[in-house]
Amino acid sequence: MPAEGFFDKDALVAILRGVDPKKVLDVAKVLYAAGIRVIEVPLNSPDPFTSIAALSAALGPDCLIGAGTVLRAEEVRKVHAAGGRLIVSPNCDAEVIGAALELQMQVLPGIATATEAFAALRAGAKHLKLFPAASYGPKHLQALRTVLPAHAGLLAVGGVGAEHIADYLAAGAAGFGFGSELFRPEYALSDIERRAQLLVRTLREARQKITTTGRTA
Predict the structure, then answer these.
(1) How far is CA 130 from CA 74, 185, 199, in A?
(2) Is the Cβ–Cβ distance between 170 and 11 less than 8 Å?
(3) I need a labelling partner for 82 at 20 to 30 A (CA). Which of 102, 106, 127, 137 fits?
(4) What is the pLDDT of residues 71-114, one digit of tens each?
């Protein structure tokens, strides 16, 4: 699947902050079985490029693999060399965005305001993440959606749990990124499996309800 296709609708990004490279494939298999196809390994994890390389080699084009907490252009190039195709940042940095696009990677910069959102779009980003979403809420996302281009997907990331999915979807979220709600290094695989299944199921049910009723925020 082309990288762009992973963000067409209802994207769900698994954020594996702190994942052990020796365990990353076992975690990825559980996520894949639950229906998750986008995985980011934050660069403040242990030996993140080893994990990214392992995931990219094992999962191939059927999943979008990359890095989170990417702050510098040189980090973008290291992720690309490891086989990653996704760059996720907590902020809006035109140099990081440009480096990712130059390497034909998918980029997801963090934004909080309309000013940051339009700066990211001007730099070439096609999708954005509202971060930390819990600090702003669905109404803030909805307000941003009223001024952003329709083609610009806006994902809610940071402090969002299964119980919040329906409200963010109704407000216009194109998807979600889940960190500790889905993964922590101390979670057992069975716990990660349960959490992944819950998030995927809740997302699908909430989208189906909106599609059926036409309800929006």
Answers:
(1) 24, 25, 18
(2) no
(3) 127
(4) 999 999 999 999 999 999 999 999 999 999 999 999 999 999 99
pLDDT of residue 60: 86
155-178 burial, b at 16+ Cβ within 10 Å, e below that, comes to: bbbbbbbbebbbbbbbbbbbbbbb
Dist CA 8 CA 127 (whole Å): 10
- Average pLDDT across the chain, whole number: 95
Q: Which residue, among 115, 65, 75, 70, has the nearest Cα to 90 in the 3D structure?
A: 70
Residue whose structure tokens are 């699947």:
1
How far is it, in rounded angstroms, from Cα 167 to Cα 173? 9
Q: Indicate if the alpha-carbon torsion angle 8, 128, 195, 15 is positive or negative.
A: positive
Q: 33-58, pLDDT tens digit by residue?
A: 999 999 999 999 999 999 999 999 99
Task: Compute φ and ψ for 95, nearest 5 degrees.
Answer: -70, -40
